[in-house]
Design brief:
heterodimer; A: alpha+beta; Ubiquitin-like (UB roll); DNA polymerase, domain 1; 2 domains; 5 helices; B: 757 residues; alpha+beta; Aldehyde Oxidoreductase, domain 3; Aldehyde Oxidoreductase, domain 4; 3 domains; seven-stranded mixed β-sheet; 18 helices; globular
Amino acid sequence: MTRIPLSLIINGQTHEVLAEPHRTLLDVLRTDLGLVGTKENCLEAECGVCTVLVEGAAVNACILLAAQCQGRAIVTIEGLAAPGQLHPLQQAFIDHGAVQCGYCIPGMLLAAKAYLDESPEPNENGVREALAGNLCRCTGYQRIIEAVLSAARVLRASPTPASPETAS
Amino acid sequence: MTQATRIVGHSVPRMDAPGKVTGTALYAADFALPGMLYGKVLRSREPHARLVRVDTSRAARLPGVRAVITATDVPDVRYGGSVKDERVFARERIRFAGQPLAAVAATSLDAATAALAAIEVVATPLAPVLDVAAALSPAAPLVHEAWASYTALPILHRAGNVCNRARIVVGDVERGFVEADRIFENRFTTSSVHQGYTEPRAAVAQWDSSGLVTVWSNTQLPFEIQTTLAEILQMPPSKVRIIVPGIGGGFGGKLRIGMEHFAALLAMKTGRPVKVMTSSEEELTAAYARQPAIVEVKTGVTNDGRLTAREARLWFDTGAFAGSGPGVASVATLMLAGPYRIPNLLLEGFAVYTNKTNFGSFRAPSGPQANFAVESQMDIIADALGVDPLELRLKNIVREGEEGPTGQVLTAVGLEECLRRAADAIGWQDRRPEAGRGKGIACGWWTTTGGSSGVYIKVNPDGTIALNTGAAEIGTAALTGAAQVLAEDLGVQLTDINVVSADTLSTPFDFGAQGSRTAFAVGNACRAAVADLKRQILALASKHLGVEEHALTLREGSVAGEGKRATLAELARISQASGGGLIAHGTFVAPPTAYDAKRVEGHVYPAFHSPSFHAHAVDLSVDAQTGEVTIHRYVVAQDVGFAVNPSAIEGQIEGGVAQGLGQALSEEIVYDNGRVLNANLTDYKMPTALDVPRVESILVQHPSLVGPFGAKGVGEPPNIEPPAAIANAVASAAGVRITSLPITPEKVALALRARAT
């Protein structure tokens, strides 16, 4: 099948790739670019482990064609904070024991990031709704929700993004 | 604990959390090698058929396809844990919809998928054996006609479609029923539920020029997979190396061989690394989901609420192969007794072949099914006698020093405290606070699986410690717990420890991440290793400092005495220059739990090691119109022995309850004529963040005699009681008793309507 040239802006850097038009953003991220922090599971937008930000919105990369992302700013877990640093959400997930197996966590963090960008003063129900598309089988969500609420407080106190790539 | 501890007993963050929140932690599903091909498995659409032909010629010619293999390409080996009844690919006979028939390797997943569609399968359908009732009927066809010729554990009781009947007999159950004033007989059913790990099962295999195959996979049991794969490939185990890069959840679903053999066989055929990963459809049709069960319980009780006898039978649908079934049926009998003093018992667990996937082990295998039945019946009895369900339980529970059902002597029994604290926390005295609202309670017990563990610990030249263990970290933070034990005993910080794990070539043996045993067993192996390492350190320090060993103490990373001092870093460097480095080997095997062998038959799990005890209490409302359940509060009181890491344990409780609520309320793999109707995550309904209530954990601590610092296994228990607690609360709230799982709004609404008419 013919491959088309794509210019993907991922975590602030432009990546030129050649990909068949039917290939998903998830596949290109993981297979072509080695960005395996974005996870793969159901491939039907039911589990949320592949959640990334496209122009600041949380989307399931498994049902988004890479070709649809031409020229659009994408943030993956690798770009949530600068290397060696942690975004307040990441720090809160560690501190609150919100991580067990961890496979859902990159998607969970990006879904939470998109939500907090829109709703800097969240309540518990809001967080639950925002994360309802991200399945976690280990934690029962409790500590994840606590971590997001805690990170929101930290972000309100110091709203500077942890990394320029995450500014949307 | 009489002495203050520095590291164990504290809620420290898990060691692998930074890697997991930054996306740098590598999982088996992420693993890739240069030149890697993609493998896919062709699976039967028929649940039961005579296999006539698998024609791969057209598929093999498609672009990008590098290999297509079928049964004729692999050694004709039957393998399996307790019964060797399974083969890599079906031969002659297809036994479930989803059974592997062929596998392909291609340069892309698309090419592999296209090749699957080009394989021609000719099969003559046969009438499938759809469930346990059909399998047990006298006219039922045998799922395995040659069952009697299979190699199996000699202690199993097998007959036709029953691949094990495990039994416990205590006293005289008929006499016990004569002594009873009332006899209660109830029947319960449960559905199959999937572990729901978010990372699919995955394996990447590569052969080297010496004939050694390395498989990177997300198995919970690398050493079992090593021997099973060696058996399948007809090679010595030393030629099979299993490495676990990381696991995205297992819950028992990644115990038995998954994609490893397909990857290894395809890699052998192509000479290239091959990766095989499951789809959601494969997970829900052809994995190791929890066994559906039928449970019949007959219990005798005196008018004042004393249990005199119980006769109970639990039939598991084990699917087309025995797999975990014979063992899980054994464990079920201990769960049917419950944590109660019942002098006369006849308890049987059956694993029954049907034409379905080989159901397997899921977090506390057999626990939720048996507990749902016996704990529902405890409430039925209490209601009939007009006794408070809590009081009925308190009157009959086992206590310190009493016997378990097979005669084991129970110690560290924290059950009464669990029941009282859970009841107090939920506000038990006000059981029906308003119309349509009610509270339920359920209790249980569970094992801390034994088995052996070995570790090496090594002092790095900077004085930090490398912990080398054969156990895999499946997400429970068990290896953080073991490292806490190590740090505590050695007098170093947790941040001083790095973990290397789960590589069958380089790490010591471990019985695996199963049965709530990892922190318990690896923690104890660490204690043994530290004892040895301390001897080495003190001997070396004595020589180096010229101070007698008895005058030296090791504390905070240094050895000191008589005004002299050497750091661990210095000693490590001295040893590296002159003695091969400081390294110690520690091992642990759980001491056998004594039991009365005359009480059991066909039993592969006759006693619970270092058992844990627990009680769950829930406060919920039932919508009188829709039957929908709304949970207000959920409380767990769990006797964890000693809380090595309280926050991590609470995380286990919260997650275990969430999974248990899925089984209680919404999850079911639905079969129709042997085929799964809901093999996708839209229709298989796992709880989301909107569905799981806040869970309140109470950690009860009656120290075990064996576990590190008194710890007991904690991972599985929280998954056991939710279905029973919910069923009892629904009965309390709405006055209807639901005896089949899941307790869907439809079932509740129908029961409410039936009662109204």
